[in-house]
Write a structure and sequence with these properties.
This protein is mainly beta. About 15% of the residues lie in helices and about 40% in strands. Strand 3 and strand 4 form a beta hairpin.
């Protein structure tokens, strides 16, 4: 019995050593990685680059992402929570451009808890670039921001550059 009480006291003292992180209520993000894989689209048989951007995030109240109901409402007004500003390299200089279809999008709620609390982790987001509509050896980079469900915008972070449509004709 004494050993059980000693073990419980030891376990309680250990659990009190872990303090919840103190993150700001406004999300903070940092660029982590960008990668591209050339794939064959299953529907149309066209080649494409599937680009994956990963950012590290911290949020003090854990309200990053939309529930299904919030997403339905957001879609009707293009109220994206993953904001992407694209830049294309032209004559050695990156210039912002407006794609026909926005690259920005939506991601689901990241908190596993029903109560507010700090969360941190990595969020990966994928964008497809069909080669038929992408210039050969197109060099892009992106500015990324996240928006939490309260409407708070994170800082912006910039990706490294990436070269798309690298398949050359024989």
């Amino acid at each position: 019995m004494g050993r059980i009480i000693t073990f419980l006291c030891f376990a309680l003292s250990l659990s009190s050593c872990f303090k919840e992180p103190d993150f700001a209520l406004t999300p903070v993000i940092n660029f982590d990685s960008i990668s591209s894989q050339i794939r064959l689209d299953q529907d149309g048989g066209l080649t494409k680059d599937s680009v994956v951007v990963t950012v590290y995030f911290e949020d003090g109240d854990g309200d990053l992402g939309y529930s299904e109901i919030q997403k339905e409402e957001a879609v009707t007004s293009d109220n994206f929570n993953y904001l992407i500003k694209p830049f294309r390299k032209q004559n050695g200089v990156f210039k912002e451009f407006q794609p026909l279809i926005p690259y920005s999008g939506y991601f689901p709620s990241l908190s596993l808890e029903s109560k507010p609390g700090p969360i941190e982790g990595y969020l990966s987001y994928s964008i497809d670039f069909f080669h038929a509509f992408t210039p050969k050896f197109d060099t892009l980079k992106f500015e990324i921001q996240l928006k939490d469900s309260s409407g708070n915008l994170s800082n912006s972070t910039e990706t490294e550059e990436i070269v798309l449509n690298r398949i050359s004709a024989l």
